[in-house]
Amino acid sequence: MIGYVLFAGLLLGLAALWWAASRWLRQRRVRLDSGSGLSDDDLIERVAEAVRQRAEHRRNVSALRHQCGIPIERLAADLRRLRRIIAADAARSAAHQLGNRLAYDRLLIQCCEMLGIVHELDRETGGHDRDIERLRVEAELERAGLILSTGYGRAA
Predict the structure, then answer these.
(1) How far is the C-alpha of 25 from the C-alpha of 97, rounded, in Å?
(2) Does any domain span residue 12?
(3) Which residues, 6+ apart, have CB-to-CB distance to 149 below 8 Å?
């Protein structure tokens, strides 16, 4: 006898839950249909776009967690350090100065590749052409948000 009562109570509970859920869904549909003015296709497209954005966000976060290579912050710190060294290496030998500039150019090239900036630093140029390209790349990197120097003396 108690088993029948429990079974009947369970059926009544499920029926009440079914009724409440269907009522809520009907109200939700009425609100969506009347409030937004969207057709079913538009609504599906909005949901699909939200799902695509969420998936892209998850991929980006996963890529940040599993980075390989040197972080851009470290490259920027190395660029700032080498920039100070190059500014003060006039008393050094020509080989030492050339080595510092080549290392600086390599770091600039790495930053450009990470940020998708077009450069001509990998070409065989020298002298003023190389210095002008270096200044242009520094300006592009700073425009992209990389801080190469603080205060005065920032690239254009």
Answers:
(1) 73
(2) no
(3) 80, 83, 155
Distance CA 36, CA 62 (A): 34
Number of domains in the chain: 2
What pTM was computed for the model? 0.55
pLDDT average per 10 residues of sequence, the chain (156 residues):
82 85 74 60 82 88 74 90 89 90 92 88 83 91 85 52
Give the span between the Cα atoms of 1 and 138, in whole angstroms.
Answer: 86
Residue 61 belongs to domain spanning: 40-69
Helix residue ranges per DSSP H, the chain: 2-36, 40-65, 72-87, 94-115, 127-143
Integer Cα distance of 123 and 132 in angstroms: 13
